Amino acid sequence: MVSLMNILEETKPPQLLLDQILVGDCVDHMAKLPAKSVDLIFADPPYNLQLPGGLRRPDNSLVDGVDDEWDKLGDFASYDRVCAEWLRQCRRILKDDGTIWVIGSYHNIFRLGALLQDLGFWILNDVIWRKSNPMPNFRGRRFTNAHETLIWASRQRESRYTFNYASLKALNDDLQMRSDWLIPLCTGPERLRGDRANGDGGKLHPTQKPEALLHRVLLASTKPGDVVLDPFFGTGTTGAVAKKLGRHFIGIDRDPGYAAAAQARIEQIVPGDADSISVTPNKRDAARIPFGLLVERGLISAGETLVDLPRRHAAKVRVDGSLIADQFRGSIHQVAAGIQHLPACNGWSFWHVLRNGKPVSIDALRDQVRQELEL
Ligand SMILES: C[S@@+](CC[C@H](N)C(=O)[O-])C[C@H]1O[C@@H](n2cnc3c(N)ncnc32)[C@H](O)[C@@H]1O
Asked: pLDDT below 50 — which residues of the chain?
């Protein structure tokens, strides 16, 4: 007789096995994962380079290109068929507000972009990874191929996706992060070498991505504790960086040798502590503080004068947190816009109070209130 316990057990939704590498075909494994269960996918699929073997440098040494079996997916139609299959699974397992990154070269990235759009993903950015140390074009018949392209897309147009704008700005010396990233190829001690090494470079894997690239991707588009899935895990760069940054990973690769190397690599990673992995909050995500609260809490007194930074405009603060200047009365935003004859103006960045004769931004006082209230 089938017991209630058995029925409950059998109908339980499949659980996510976190921080694990699954060996086998990514479509088969993703098909077993629950729908809408992962926050981010990073996919570095076969590029289908179809390079002729035996490319040599001017000194006659053999170029260590990508000519592995896993990269050979046939003509464009079969490449598209295979990619549509794994992208469909990616969309099924992504949470509604989740995003996907795909990386590729001119050989495949345009096909991936079209497939993403056809399947209902919404492209947010394409990012150029400019390699500071690209391989030269040995035949001299084309430009040196010095970049790869990443496409960042949300599951759907309406997704309220994660973008840690302020963190990326902090990473870039307080300048907005742009969509062209200068990052070297993975070389030196970061590059895995081993028994499986082939070709002249002694590389364990021909297309190991630099950790710096994944660092930027994960910092931009995930929060600590998020689940990141990589269906083409290779040497496990995504897992290594996810662990460092306090994110969970699920890796899939059909090659047991690569999976074992990735496992050994990730085991050596020591994750950062809670303080070091927390990110700079975005202003627009911060708790809302009305200007009146600064008046109520005595940081600014009723009757005090606010000025703009060059001190061309002034307004008086009223007890209810509204301002008055000439014929204009209203919120910090309305009065700032009115006196400048503009349709709108952010009063938080416009107005300052004078403290010891020096202008102090009311936005800084707002941050002080947030800290005092632990918001
Ligand atoms: C471009 S490499 C990924 C490299 C990886 N990003 C890294 O940093 O090491 C693609 C990987 O996908 C794996 N692969 C190819 N087809 C696959 C499939 N259908 N399912 C799972 N893995 C696959 C290959 O074994 C290879 O390691």
From this structure: 1, 199-200
Q: Is 82 left (phi over 0), alpha (psi -120 to 50) or beta?
A: alpha
Distances (CA, A) of 87 to 119, 223, 345: 8, 23, 43
The response to whether residue 26 sits with its C-beta less than 6 Å from ligand 1 reads yes
Q: What is the pLDDT of residues 153-183, one digit of tens each?
A: 999 999 999 999 999 999 999 899 999 999 9
Q: How far is the CA of 190 from the centre of ligand 1 (A)?
A: 18
Query: Tell me: the pLDDT tens digits for 219-261?
Result: 999 999 999 999 999 999 999 999 999 999 999 999 999 999 9
The CA–CA distances, whole Å, from 226 to 19, 93, 115, 328, 347 equal 11, 14, 26, 48, 35
- CATH-assigned architecture of domain 14-280: 3-Layer(aba) Sandwich (3.40)
Structure token pair of residue 125: 């950015």
Spell out the residues 6+ positions from residue 114 whose beta carbon is closer than 8 angstroms to its own: none
Structure tokens at 159: 């997704």
232 Cβ closer than 6 Å to some ligand 1 atom: yes
Domain ranges of the chain: 14-280, 286-372
